[in-house]
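Input set for joint prediction.
Command: fold jointly, output tokens.
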Amino acid sequence: MRIGKVAERAGVSVRALRYYEEQGLVIADRSPSGHRRYPESAVERVKFIQLLYAAGLASKAIRQILPFLDTLVATPQMTRRLMDERARIRVQIDALTRAQDRLDELIRLSAEYENAPATCSAT
Amino acid sequence: MRIGKVAERAGVSVRALRYYEEQGLVIADRSPSGHRRYPESAVERVKFIQLLYAAGLASKAIRQILPFLDTLVATPQMTRRLMDERARIRVQIDALTRAQDRLDELIRLSAEYENAPATCSAT
DNA sequence: CTTGATCCTCACGTTGACGTGAGGTTCTAG
DNA sequence: CTAGAACCTCACGTCAACGTGAGGATCAAG
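tokens >
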């Protein structure tokens, strides 16, 4: 498959795919003229990469984790990285949840203000 | 209170506090010699700012929200911003949760590999 | 054969929340 | 009164995941 099709089906930019290759996350072989050729599996692989990026993992972390998908061989570094990132994500979810709760408070207060009759300018 | 003390008590760097002032998030008056003077309330304010930064809000968004804490007057922009950011945070939590689940899968597989007797080199 | 879509490789630009000196002033404890 | 801690204002550096041309080759269709 050519790069444009992979980009379309995985929902990323062509530039992003070239960047992933530069980072060693996706390996593409080349046609005689130098155009990248991807296997079908690349689409799912890229989607997975996007999932991890969206969770705040850096290229380096993803690079350490991805080989496991190919070989199903877990080195100690890979296992450690998996658990580290999982822990980090949990911490991040907790922080987001706290922020969400605080925003909910403010939204409630805001709604109360909107409904306060004496302070409404109109009507 | 002086900037160093605020930084220590709020758990941020002195540089960060100057940056917050530059962004209009924390207003400090000055001593005759030009040193920043903060009220006690600044510590809580900065902690709240940190909470929002940790949740991925940008300075601009925080700047739109913060006046509500002071005046308890909600403009339509503030209410909209509050709800937009809340929605964004929810989406982000969902993404993180999906990533967490995927990592859990991999961690399980990794553990199974570790326990596979035939593939252990030692012993 | 030609034309428009798609691809290639550089390589610099972007963004945000600070870090990090440089060079100088002010405060405070002894 | 003096040294060191703490403060000040520039102002450039950082880092990551791409965006965005520049300038050119290749491919698919008519």
